[in-house]
Amino acid sequence: MKRRVLLTREIGDIEKDKKEFLRRGMGIVKLPLIKTVDIPFTCPDKNPDYIVFQSKRAFEYFEKRAVIPPDAIIIAVGEKTRRFIEDKGYKVSLVPKDQRAGGICEIMETQKRGVVWIPRAEAGREEAILCLRRMGFTVFPFPVYKTFNIYYKPSVFICRVKRVDAVVFASPSAVVGFFENFKNCRGNIDLQDILIVSIGKTTKTCLGDYGIEKVLTPSKPSMEAVAEYLANIWHGS
Question: In this structure, is the dihedral angle defined by the CA atoms of residues 200, 151, 7 and 64, taken in order, positive or negative?
Fold first, then answer.
């Protein structure tokens, strides 16, 4: 029997990701739980020595309304973010091995202290900001986009979740969106019967905040790695 996977990112991302699962013999159920939109912003008055982009989306929405100062050192969190930025013609100087806040701080330990810009989501996490400030950097976080939850009728949400063998989460925002819908469906869905998969450690931590302790996480934080991970579980390595 074909295994089915629930994908929860923005619809554009789902359309890109689904091929990794389809070519490994899995079925796809689409349940986009978030939507992002760019928002107006003003860059800080102090020019940056460093700019940290924690996602492709942060770079995309920043570049839409602003220009990267030519002398700024660009830091990209994740290889996909690095490739996306470099495909736009910019040089990425630093890429943390660990994609969590600790990875950013670790890679900055040997750098000269200075001004750091962090374009980010309106409700972004604070760990990297606080850590860099403790290290002596002057940090300017500012929102360049906003994430909205997508809400479904309980009957629609229940139907889609009950059709799948695994749910894949690629961001804390998607986790929040899932449980915002799930709270209206308690008693109708048993998550114990479904594999919960996180693309990375930060998303896994967010799942833990909702009481989900059994979370599968592949060794690499990519959708290709997630698909391969599930294929190995269901079809053997």
Answer: negative
Residue 190, helix vs strand vs coil: coil
* Domain limit, last residue, from 95, 125, 145: 145
Residue of 165, 94, 105 whose CA lies nearest to 135: 105
- Record the pTM: 0.82
The count of residues in the chain is 237
| Domain boundaries, position 157 | 4-34+149-235
CA pair distance 90, 83, nearest whole angstrom: 10
* CA gap 31, 223 in Å, rounded: 16
Instruction: Give Cβ neighbours of residue 189 (< 8 Å, ≥ 6 apart).
Output: 158, 161, 162, 182
Q: Cβ distance 104 to 128 under 8 Å?
A: yes
> At a CB cut-off of 8 Å and minimum separation 6, what does 152 contact?
31, 160, 181
Within 10 angstroms of residue 207's Cβ, the number of other Cβ atoms is 22
Block residue for tokens 């990112």? 9
Please provide residue 76's backbone torsions phi and psi, each rounded to the nearest 5 degrees.
-115, 130
Name the residue among 35, 16, 11 with its Cα closest to residue 177: 35
Once rounded to an integer, what is the mean pLDDT over residues 167-196?
91
170/197 same-domain check: yes
Mean pLDDT of the chain: 92
pLDDT for position 100: 67
Count Cβ atoms within 10 A of the Cβ of residue 52 and give its class: 0-12 exposed, 13-18 middle, 19 or more buried.
buried
List Cα–Cα distances, 120 to 41, 134, 202, 216, 230, in angstroms.
Answer: 11, 20, 16, 27, 31
Which two three-digit tokens encode residue 16?
């890109």
Tokens 């906003």 label which residue? Answer: 146
